Amino acid sequence: MPVHVLLEGTGPQIPAHLTRIPISLITTSTDVTDKIVKGKVVHKGPLVSLNDDNFILKMVIQEEDSMPNSSSQNSSVNVVLFGSLAKNFNQSANQGDVVAASGFTVGKSPTVHKDNLHPCNLLLTEDGACIYVLRPVLPNPRSPPANKRRSPLSAELSLAKAPKYTYAKLDNLKAGSVVNVYGVVVFFKQPFKSRGTDFCSTLKITDQSNEKIGCTIFCEKPEDHPKIFQNGDIVRMHRVKAQVFNKSITLVNTFGFSVVTFGGVEGALVEPRTSSRSFHFDQDDQRTVEELRSWAASQALLASVTSTVPLSAVQPKAYFDLTCQLLAKAPIDSTCTLLRVWDGTRCPHTLLKVIVDPHVTEGQLSFSKERENLIADVLVYDNHVEVARQLKPGVFLRIFNLRAIPGSSQVRGLTSSQLQVDHLAFHLHGGTSYSRGIRILPDNTPDVQELKRVIEAFHENDEKALSEINDSDLLEVWKTPPESLDGETVDCSTERSCGHDMQTVTLSEVKRSGPGRVHHVRAQLKAYEPHRLHEALKLYCSKCKSMQDIPDDELLESIFSEASKDCGPCSPPPWTLSGQVSLPRHAPGPSNRALTVYLLTQLMSEGKIKDVILLMGSTLEEMCQLMASYQNIIPVRSSGGHLSLLDLSAPFLFRGRKRYYGCKRCSEAAVRELSAEGVEMIDEKIIAEALGIQPLQFILLMKLELQDATDRLDVFLWRHAESFFGVSAEDASANQEAQNSICQIMDSLCPPGGNVGQHPWLDLCLMAYQAEDDDGQTKTCYQVCHTTVVKPSSE
DNA sequence: GATTAGGATTTG
């Protein structure tokens, strides 16, 4: 077995041919043959089962002592163990242990940018790698081993100071005496606030004497209380006082009280749980815990008192304990908080879903349908609200004495429409009767490890998260906390300007109410399309209500090219003068090509020769070159000896960088005299009118996918898009700055690559209306209206 | 070196 547990100063030691190398000196090109690294396990990940008999485990070790030549930087390194090495290590070592490793290979750490640890990681596989767990020998004050070798100085000091503890049996407690005791927990309450200054926890313990003794612990801080997770746990208490109450002996903590708790499962690691900075623990303690474990198992003590049940096995009306992960939470009112939890199993009953405002929700707001089916909404009341307030999404919990209530019980403050009928509701009633309470379980507890495996299997199946065996990132999959808002006040990136006075509703409520209404919602932008701005720009005819894409340059080139083929003799209209322009020299194509233009005589007489010209036979490119010289250019062609306009797929007018289009259906286009008399400036409107053209409007059209805690909703941003962005669509069609502005806004509302939970919140006014889709089916559509982006801070 | 609580299902 390549995992060796070595006791300091005794028995086998690290082979002498291995020399230690400081972690900070390791690079991918370092020769690590016969080298060893040493450090404390500051993080031990779970044992991840990849498939049958293949495991992976990640840990972080930190060099504790200052090695010569080592800098304080990069003294922590990711270590990845594979196969049976991972499995054995998981059983043999714990966070806090000092370990040494040899026979490893050095890889690049894929998480260096995330964890800021060493740029390399150490990879340990079964073939050749060894890991040594270095355990100090704790001195045994009562019976030092006869053959004990000279122990390190520190151990001798500790020996001299080590107090000698004796433990009273529970059937031998004398009233008034202060004693130390061991016991198996048969009942316990989580610490709760007493009416005095302290938190109070009550427990009942027993031992081989079979005496059951109640204990009451008062401590100011909950963390100083016994860390009991379930019945069967074993507690060791120092300095508790025996008192008589109701003719029975009870134990109450006194000065100098300390407590250590151990899991009660036979054969499991004896791992002390305590908030004490230092505590005594020796081989006698180890033996005592093991004896109590096996005694408890033989008594079947726990069979009657444990009631931890997965969601898949929950019975209606039953009280049970639930081990789960918190995904999100939201306050309902001052006496009730919603906890959204899961344990990776699916409850066969329809579960109550409580709908809450997304802006008061902490944690992820919405989940995949598959995952949503696994999520239980737990309502916790009264004294548990304060405990719930301190929970962060992502933590693992055990909820004690949770009640599954079938039927349609009402939740105060929620309308009946917010509850599903025929559901199973989970309530954690107020009070502490029957151990009612919530406890955070540390990640390293066996039940949490098991839960993680189940959850991870869900990720694996449902989200295909685990794909590569050797990517140590995969270990982070289940660890990634749910997207969290951290309960911060939400600043919205948009504001309504409609002046409606109405309550904000959820997206699911919007969906439930029909068309013809206006709603105020608060939501996040999950996605939008199109992403390319030019695809969001459309041409819209206000007369026939048609909408079309803006033709691309390729199409325009072909129209121009087609039109230039037919430039035979053409009698100019009487209100024009024909002439030639030559293109600037740097123009591509035939050099000094001359193009036919028609100038307006009236404008010539006014000295406004460059205000409008009709241009014939040019390419698109040439047209664009001439834009610098003329304010308005109308492309024309010869058709049967007369001047006519180009196909209306092409712009009827080029004006500055802008191109103006007409509606094919609604225009009666022809080259007609432009009357510009008394007109200050000739613009697209005057020209369109003169040419009989129904102009098309530039519009912006986007589909936004909104989400809040309750639902997702596709809405259009169209009629109010210009005021939304503070940019005109026409400007966006021609002006880089306007385009950048829109793109920046979309990036800020829906940052590329980020997770949706972190997208900014948007206060929106939505209009629900009926529209016909392509198949002639009427459906309800939604548009954002009267909403403006609050300018994102420039970065 | 005080006081708290002293198990024992619920408003929802």
From TrEMBL:
GO molecular function: G-rich strand telomeric DNA binding; telomerase inhibitor activity
Subcellular location(s) of the protein: Chromosome, Telomere; Nucleus
Alphabetical keyword list: Chromosome, DNA-binding, Nucleus, Telomere
Residues covered by the Telomeric single stranded DNA binding POT1/Cdc13 domain: 167-297
Entries under Pfam families matching the protein: POT1, POT1_C_insert, POT1PC
Identification of the protein by name: Protection of telomeres protein 1
Any one of the GO BP annotations: regulation of telomere maintenance via telomerase
Gene designation: pot1
